[in-house]
Amino acid sequence: MKVEDDYIKDKELQDGLSKSKANGMNWWDGKEEYKPHAYIHNLIKQVWPVHIYEGFEYWINDYPVGDQLDWHNDKDEYAYKHFDTIIMPAEGIVYYTHADDVEGGVLEITNGDKDVKIHPKKNRLVKFKTGLMHRVTEMRKGKRRSILVNAWRKKPNTFNVKDRDVYDEDL
Fold first, then answer.
1. Mean pLDDT of 125-149
2. In 3D, which of 107, 111, 4 has the Cα closest to residue 47?
3. Which residues lie below 8 Å from residue 165, measured CB to CB, with a gap of 6+?
4. For the segment 36-72, what is each residue's pLDDT rounded down to a tens digit?
5. Using only C-alpha atoms, what is the Rg of the chain?
6. Which of 62, 87, 67 shows the shortest CA–CA distance to 150?
7. Contact (CB, 8 A) for 119 and 170
8. First CA to last CA across the chain, in angstroms?
């Protein structure tokens, strides 16, 4: 697990990431650019400049006050829903574009017999095995927005439907 503050040094990239939009779950093979998501692709290239992955799944989470995310592990949602099979990504990141006046919204990761607690902070990158159980505690105050990326050795079945804007109901 790695936590790095002030991760993005390029102000233009920071601003672009903070304004990025990516509806639903999205897939990128790491090669062909999809212009509307160029800033997110640049983040991915900065995290994994050289890689062995078939591609990357990414999405954006905005947590309003009162929201939380229960314990879970990241997985191929289609394979789980249709075949009761758990296939997990190799690793992933959480990159905070906003963490304004935040209370709550803590990323907790189960690492063996202890939980690691990581508070949201703007321009913080957290890299970890997203197959580990993790959650986000209830947002009590402020704005918390993050870009999430999972690196996959093999393209997940979730994206057999389409590569962009995939929602739970599409599965």
1. 96
2. 4
3. 23, 24, 26
4. 899 999 999 999 998 999 999 999 999 899 999 999 9
5. 15
6. 87
7. no
8. 30
